[in-house]
Design brief:
Order of helices and strands: EEEHEHEEEEEHEH
Largest sheet: 4 strands, mixed
CATH superfamily: Imidazole glycerol phosphate dehydratase, domain 1
Number of strands: 10
CATH architecture: 2-Layer Sandwich
Radius of gyration: 16 Å
Number of domains: 1
Shape: globular
Oligomer: single chain
CATH topology: Ribosomal Protein S5, domain 2
Length: 197
């Protein structure tokens, strides 16, 4: 079973993440940030991973530490569950429309993390959440999960739709990339014989 649990406690946040890669999209998420919970629930549902998150952070200051640290711990849990990545498809990509918006994500589970973020927002906030924090989550998740991740909003106007389509596109790309390839002999999917480095 490809599953992992990771906990992280600092003076700013206390985060618990449990995930199962070969799940059914079940989720149980409480970060104290309603819109963020909604995005993570969609990520679990569309990546088909089972995901439990408990986060307590210094929200009396702002949401930055909580959002970034959830990305860090979720990425660490994903990397732990993926292990040596033997037999996975490795690559995934998806275009996701949402009303007037279209976003795309492309991913390589390479253990050479990188983020390309081509997403702009017309509004500085969605509800109480600063839109600049979404790049922080994607960066933290990609860096700690070992993903080369490219996310781009192709077009769109509604900030809520843009953010949600980016999460869903990344989730679908992740779902494809982490799947075990039935044509694989179980080797690491690299001509080098190892990922990373």
């Amino acid at each position: 079973m490809r599953a992992a649990t990771v906990e992280r406690k600092t003076r700013e946040t206390e985060i618990f993440v449990a995930l199962e890669l070969d799940g059914s999209g079940d989720y149980d998420i409480e970060t104290g940030i309603g819109f963020f919970d909604h995005m993570l629930e969609g990520f679990a549902k569309h990546s088909m991973i089972d995901l439990k998150i408990r986060a307590e952070g210094d929200l009396h200051i702002d949401m930055h530490h909580t959002v970034e640290d959830v990305g860090i711990v979720m990425g660490q849990a994903a990397a732990k569950a993926l292990g040596d990545c033997a037999g996975i498809r490795r690559f995934g990509a998806a275009y996701i429309p949402m009303d007037e918006t279209l976003s795309r994500a492309a991913m390589d589970i390479s253990k050479r993390p990188y983020l390309v973020w081509r997403v702009n927002f017309a509004r500085p906030k969605v509800g109480d959440m600063d839109t600049e924090l979404f790049k922080e989550w994607f960066h933290a998740f990609a860096m700690n999960a070992g993903l080369c991740l490219h996310v781009e909003n192709v077009y769109g106007e509604n900030t809520h739709h843009i953010i949600e389509s980016c999460f869903k596109a990344t989730a679908r790309a992740f779902r494809d990339a982490l799947e075990l390839d039935p044509r694989s002999d179980g080797d690491t999917p690299s001509t080098k014989g190892v990922l990373g480095g």
